Amino acid sequence: MTETSLSSQSFPILVPNNSNAQPLIFFLTGIPGLKATQYWISIPFCLLYVVALSGNSMILFVVLCERSLHKPMYCFLSMLSVTDLSLSLCTLSAILGVFWFEAQEISLYTCIAQMFFLHGFTFMESGVLLAMAFDRFVTICDTLRYTTIFTNARIAKIGISVLIRNVAVMLPVVLFVKRLSFCSSMVLSHSYCYRVDLIQLSCTDNRINSILGLFALFSTTGFDCPCILLCYVLIIRSVLSIPSSEERQKAFNTCTSHISAAAILPSSTSLSSHLHLSTPSGPISSFKSNHQLFLIRDKAIY
């Protein structure tokens, strides 16, 4: 491929994915209008990744090594840390490659794989947060049945169910993206592969892909967020009915961090979608402080 500027990159001929021609190449984008300074801007992003990776790794290490933390809530916390680690790793190389080495080229299949894991792990976060909200709901509203509801086998089934749901939802999405044909500009507006960004470059009918994308969103995050909200509304109502002010304060303390973590996911996803932020590291790093609050507060209370 001859070297041309990204702004003038165009393909007037329709390029189908199923042809035997050379694999399609897309171009990732750094921060628009700040190319001269994006090397320095990348330093805070890199630090966010370091915080995300080290913070989640430390949480996993503490939970695995401390036997007193081998409880349902900390199992869900570990699932969330694994999800955040995976989400960081699936975009780390692409984003830092664009910022530091101007490695902007990415093949279609690599882009689809990154898109699958990026959106899949994002949806998985909401599923794990829903499980954590239900855990807090049972802890406060149905304490006597907590140990019978959250057995090790049931926790494992919850984790596997969340994983299977995300794979089942994302697989049709990426398969139909693979069938698209592309022409005109091949320049993506992010420094990682974003599904909406990719299908907008297609010359073919995107209605099926749009429907599948909406179905994936509403069947995962769109379902989880109202359920999380309902759980915490019921929790707050139950807490307010506790006669003892001391017990009421303890119950509020154990739920505050969970509510903060649950609120971060939809707000950060919406902000990223509307502002086209170049990295999803912000919400990931925000989760770290909430995770540490879980470990400190809940161990102190119980």
TrEMBL record:
<feature type="transmembrane region" description="Helical">
    <location>
        <begin position="106"/>
        <end position="134"/>
    </location>
</feature>
<keyword id="KW-0297">G-protein coupled receptor</keyword>
<dbReference type="GO" id="GO:0004984">
    <property type="term" value="F:olfactory receptor activity"/>
</dbReference>
<dbReference type="Pfam" id="PF13853">
    <property type="entry name" value="7tm_4"/>
</dbReference>
<feature type="transmembrane region" description="Helical">
    <location>
        <begin position="39"/>
        <end position="64"/>
    </location>
</feature>
<dbReference type="InterPro" id="IPR017452">
    <property type="entry name" value="GPCR_Rhodpsn_7TM"/>
</dbReference>
<dbReference type="GO" id="GO:0005886">
    <property type="term" value="C:plasma membrane"/>
</dbReference>
<keyword id="KW-0807">Transducer</keyword>
<dbReference type="InterPro" id="IPR000725">
    <property type="entry name" value="Olfact_rcpt"/>
</dbReference>
<comment type="function">
    <text>Odorant receptor.</text>
</comment>
<keyword id="KW-0675">Receptor</keyword>
<keyword id="KW-1003">Cell membrane</keyword>
<feature type="transmembrane region" description="Helical">
    <location>
        <begin position="155"/>
        <end position="177"/>
    </location>
</feature>
<dbReference type="GO" id="GO:0004930">
    <property type="term" value="F:G protein-coupled receptor activity"/>
</dbReference>
<keyword id="KW-1133">Transmembrane helix</keyword>
<keyword id="KW-0472">Membrane</keyword>
<feature type="transmembrane region" description="Helical">
    <location>
        <begin position="211"/>
        <end position="235"/>
    </location>
</feature>
<dbReference type="InterPro" id="IPR050402">
    <property type="entry name" value="OR51/52/56-like"/>
</dbReference>
<keyword id="KW-0552">Olfaction</keyword>
<keyword id="KW-0716">Sensory transduction</keyword>
<feature type="domain" description="G-protein coupled receptors family 1 profile">
    <location>
        <begin position="55"/>
        <end position="264"/>
    </location>
</feature>
<keyword id="KW-0812">Transmembrane</keyword>
<protein>
    <recommendedName>
        <fullName>Olfactory receptor</fullName>
    </recommendedName>
</protein>
<comment type="similarity">
    <text>Belongs to the G-protein coupled receptor 1 family.</text>
</comment>
<feature type="transmembrane region" description="Helical">
    <location>
        <begin position="76"/>
        <end position="100"/>
    </location>
</feature>
<dbReference type="InterPro" id="IPR000276">
    <property type="entry name" value="GPCR_Rhodpsn"/>
</dbReference>
